[in-house]
Design goal:
Number of strands of chain A: 0
Distance between the termini of chain A: 55 Å
Largest sheet of chain A: none
Oligomer: heterotetramer
Distance between the termini of chain D: 14 Å
Number of domains of chain D: 1
Strand content of chain A: under 5%
Shape of chain D: globular
Structural class of chain D: mainly alpha
Shape of chain A: rod-shaped
Chains: A mainly alpha (49), B alpha/beta (241), C mainly alpha (219), D mainly alpha (259)
Number of strands of chain D: 0
Radius of gyration of chain D: 22 Å
Structural class of chain A: mainly alpha
């Protein structure tokens, strides 16, 4: 019966890891966009991203 | 020019492909009885402008009015009233000249397909090769078949992309005759070509494009050969009409 | 409607004279059917199911070959633009292409079914099998014509077509293979529920493809 | 760092949804592990059910939203609808993948095989391929507008096809009966299990809503930046040879992008 518990944790772990990974991926996107907006606001002519 | 609505009226048209801007703030009108020669170096945007007029390409910005209505939303109606010749032939090599024209006559909704096909073939001087397959035609004769296809449905406007390529002297005469009769009949013509003197001989108005911008747009009478050549080469911006 | 038949007439004439892909489709279907013999041992045991499955794999992949080519050739030669410049709506062009595509697949089936009967002595010439063959061809050609227009103007056409078409055609694959198996096994009376599924699939997706074709064809 | 702007309406929505999702999800996890009773014959592995079923529900919900976005884009060509379809497709793909993984992990101890051609699972596998086709069609179309059109076509056809696929796989299954059906969902669930499932469903649905709002904002910001890049590109003095310089034009464009 105990290895059943192993599968349970595996399933939950995979789910939460995937969702956490996705949140990180989204975080990167938001950060990238924030940099670009900041670059725009400062109106400098630095090369585009 | 009579006051009725012009055939084509395009304002502030832009067209971009990725980061390349093919057309930049182009304003052009084409009225009845006008033969416009569209000139410019390679990559100046001539073909893109023609494709926009022919409703084959949607402008990134700006408005394209044809026959008084928005060209893009009334595509089938506009296409029924324009005849187009492009770089690539629109005819099927496996079909004979007559079969091709009968097919397109049907597609254009004409009732007398056969007679209309024969008439068009006579007009371009291909009647002798009527039953031969298009694949057997030379580059020049194929271009004539293309021309025949464009005039099948007696369109109001002809949109011709370098129609003179591959044509021999006789072929050019056929083309000139078609353009002249189109203008005489109150229709309109827009054509691009690399043969400068041929264009100036036919056109009632000259437009020069450079780097996607209209740098010259003037009556044929008011421009000399070298001002046009200079516009094409130099790309200097000249106050047009 | 006259224009739809003009389009079909044009497609058939161009194909019979130009032999661009019909021949390749027939040969491809035949070689797949022959390969069946080595893939699953069809000489003994319950061979109706693998036989029917193999037959339909041959039809679907041969169909895929033809569907992909039909619009790709027109776009590459520039003749597709010539069609779009005629004062017709996209639906008419779709119907023309769709009907000629169905005809090509049916021709491939007409050649393959007797050969299959000859090789494996499975009753592939029963009228019910012919009916299912045509129904399957209609559904597959409907979606196939729509997505061949999508693939024709995209990169990596050869991968895109199967990847788009096969997942969506799963109900068609299941329906045709199950119905054909039942017909091979008995008189096929109980194949009718699958027939209804296929008929519904055809009606839904041919209509949808007709409606959505304008969204795809427009430059 | 940028000075903190007063959080406008959409920011509050995002943080609100985020907090709510976290609260309900933690409650759900707690109930799934502790509150819900252990299944008599499957043991603790059955608790995977509390993750697997919500994932399956979200996978199909996401495809439904892709359908709505696709029809909206086809009808009104509104960029907002395309963003809705794009964002929901990305989330749909994530959830569909998780359905397949948690499904096979759950199946392992019961069928002692990683896969079972069970109707729901098989349909989800096909939905997974449809999502891949959706991204490829967008990527290979050549330009963004055409990609959006092709994706809308696949979104509409795919969404309508899913129930048909499910039905045909189900009929196909009756010809090849499998021993045990995967999930024990259905009216005969004991109350405590049912409540736990509902809490988990609510929690994950909130998570989906949270991610959607966030994703929509990101896609919106991307569209705005692309728009400004286009304006700069088409500006009289800008020429396409140099790299993108958007700064010179940014003031004229409405400040929408700055908040």
């Amino acid at each position: 019966m105990d290895d059943n518990l192993g599968y349970l944790f595996a399933a939950f772990a995979v789910t939460w890891l995937a969702i956490a990974g996705y949140l990180l991926y989204i975080g990167q996107q938001v950060k990238g966009l924030r940099d670009e907006v900041r670059m725009l606001n400062e109106g400098d002519d630095s090369p585009g991203v | 020019m009579t006051g009725e609505t012009p055939y084509f009226q395009i304002e502030h048209v832009y067209k971009r492909f990725g980061t390349k801007v093919a057309l930049r703030d182009v304003n052009v009108t084409l009225a009845a009885g006008e033969a416009v020669a569209l000139l410019g170096a390679n990559g100046a945007g001539k073909t893109t402008l023609l494709r926009t007029l022919a409703t084959l390409s949607r402008p990134t910005r700006g408005t394209v009015m044809a026959f008084g209505v928005d060209a893009w939303s009334a595509r089938p109606d506009v296409r029924a009233r324009i005849g187009v010749v492009a770089h690539q032939p629109y005819v099927y090599p496996e079909l004979s000249c007559t079969e091709n024209l009968v097919f397109f006559a049907t597609m254009f909704g004409l009732s007398n397909e056969q007679t209309r096909a024969t008439e068009a073939l006579e007009q371009v001087g291909l009647i002798r090769r009527a039953e031969d397959r298009a694949a057997t035609l030379s580059r020049g004769l194929l271009q004539r078949l293309n021309l025949a296809r464009a005039i099948l449905h007696e369109p109001a406007v002809l949109v011709l992309d370098e129609p003179d390529t591959g044509l021999d002297a006789a072929g050019r005469e056929v083309l000139s005759e078609i353009v002249r009769s189109q203008i005489a009949g109150g229709g309109g013509v827009v054509l691009t070509t690399h043969a400068l003197e041929y264009a100036l001989e036919l056109a009632t108005r000259v437009i020069v494009l450079a780097d996607g911008r209209v740098v010259l747009d003037d009556e044929r009478g008011r421009v000399t050969d070298d001002t046009v050549a200079q516009a094409i080469g130099g790309g200097a911006v000249m106050a047009g009409r | 409607m006259r224009r739809v038949w003009a389009l079909v007439w044009k497609d058939l004439l161009v194909e019979f004279r130009g032999r661009e892909f019909l021949g390749a489709m027939v040969v491809f279907a035949l070689i797949t059917i022959v390969t069946l013999n080595f893939a699953f041992d069809l000489s003994r045991g319950d061979r109706e199911a693998p036989g029917a499955g193999g037959l339909w794999i041959a039809f679907l992949f041969a169909g895929m070959l033809g569907l992909g080519r039909s619009l790709a050739v027109e776009r590459d030669r520039g003749t597709l633009e010539g069609l779009m410049l005629c004062p017709v709506d996209a639906g008419t062009i779709f119907l023309g292409k769709f009907i000629s595509n169905v005809m090509f697949i049916v021709i491939v089936q007409a050649v393959s079914l007797p050969v299959f009967y000859g090789l494996y002595n499975l009753p592939s010439l029963r009228p019910m099998v012919l009916l299912i063959a045509v129904i399957g061809a209609i559904g597959f050609a409907g979606l196939g014509t729509l997505f061949s227009a999508v693939a024709a103007s995209s990169r990596a056409r050869e991968i895109l077509m199967p990847l788009l078409l096969f997942p969506l055609a799963i109900p068609l694959v299941i329906g045709t293979v199950q119905a054909t198996t039942l017909i091979f096994q008995g008189d096929g009376a109980d194949a009718w529920p699958w027939f209804n599924l296929l008929a519904a699939f055809d009606v839904i997706f041919v209509t949808l493809s007709y409606v959505l074709f304008d969204l795809v064809l427009e430059e | 760092m940028m000075q903190r702007k007063p959080a406008n309406r959409s920011d509050m929505l995002v943080t609100g949804l985020g907090v709510l999702a976290v609260v309900v999800l933690t409650l759900g996890i707690f109930m799934a592990f502790v509150y819900a009773p252990t299944d008599r014959d499957q043991g603790d592995a059955q608790r995977i059910f509390y993750v697997h079923v919500p994932m399956a529900w979200l996978a199909y919900l996401a495809m439904g939203v892709v359908f709505i976005g696709s029809v909206g884009y086809m009808w009104k060509r509104s960029a907002r609808m395309d963003r809705l379809a794009r964002s929901s497709a990305e989330l749909g793909f994530l959830f569909t993948t998780l359905v397949l993984i948690t499904g096979s992990i759950w199946g392992r101890p019961i069928w002692n095989a990683w896969w079972q051609w069970e109707a729901r699972l098989t349909t989800t596998l096909i939905l997974w391929f449809i999502f891949i086709g959706y991204f490829m069609v967008r990527a290979y179309a050549g330009d963004a507008e055409r990609g959006a059109r092709y994706a809308a076509v696949l979104g509409i056809i795919g969404a309508i096809d899913v129930p048909i696929i499910h039905q045909s796989v189900k009929w196909w299954r009756t010809l090849h009966p499998e021993p045990i059906v995967l999930d024990t969902a259905g009216p005969n669930l004991p109350d405590s299990m049912l409540v736990t499932l509902l809490v988990c469903l609510a929690g994950f649905t909130l998570l989906y809503a949270f991610l959607m709002v966030l994703k929509m904002q990101i896609e919106w910001a991307r569209d705005v930046l692309a728009e400004r890049e286009l304006t700069a590109l088409l500006a009289p003095e800008g020429n396409q040879a140099e790299r993108r310089t958007v700064a010179t034009v940014s003031h004229k464009v409405s400040g929408a992008a700055e908040d």
